Every structure is written in structure tokens, then in C-alpha cells.
Amino acid sequence: MGPKTEQLIGVLDQLAVVLESDGATHWSQWMRKARGHLLNADYYGVEYLLSAYGGMGSFNDLVLGQRGVDGAFAWKSGHVELNEKLDLLRGEAAALANAIKRAQD
Q1: φ, ψ of residue 56 in degrees (nearest 5)
Q2: Which of 61, 69, 87, 96 is deepest in the core (most CB within 10 A)?
Q3: Which residues pair with 73 in a beta bridge?
Q4: DSSP of 54-71
Q5: Is the pLDDT assigned to residue 100 strictly greater than 80?
Q6: Which string of b and e fits 6-38 if b means at least 16 CB within 10 Å?
């Protein structure tokens, strides 16, 4: 396992925690599944991760910290920081996965 793969596994761990903290279980499970493949030295983890990006309803579109209060939209406390962290990790994961993919091609 190369250093970029090890780094990506760490980023996926962090992403899963951030996503779980806001109840985004679908995307958290996605990150954990990609991580599992990578831990088993299965390159499919890179392809699987990258398939989350792009298109309507994709991981790119996810915004955390939203909730409903008495049927009305509201932001959770700390939503700005939460989304900044999500954006940073999401970008880092994509950059690492793309770098790994380019090295494989």
C-alpha cells in the first residue's frame, strides 16, 4: 500500500466521522465501504469512491447541518464549520483518489 492510499484511508475515516456526526449515514457507509476495499489492497475502492462525485444528488451536493423545526427549515448550530470541514475532506479525498487513479492508468 502506497503513501497516498494510506493518506486516503485516513481521510475516509475522518469523512465517515463527520458524516455520522450529522446523521448522513448513506454517505458515511459509502466512505467506509471505499475504505474497506482500500484496506484490502483492492483498487476498486478508488473507483467506488470516485463514483460518489458528480451528477445530481451526488456527494458533491451534500450540505450538512440542516434540520426542520416545526416544519420549517433551520440550520444547526456550527453548520458553517461543519461544512467547511466536509468540503476540505471531500476535496482531499477526491484529489488523492484521482492521483492514485492516474498512477494506475
Answers
A1: -65, 140
A2: 96
A3: 68
A4: SSTTSGGG---SEEEETT
A5: yes
A6: eebbebbebbbebbeebebeebbebbebbbebb
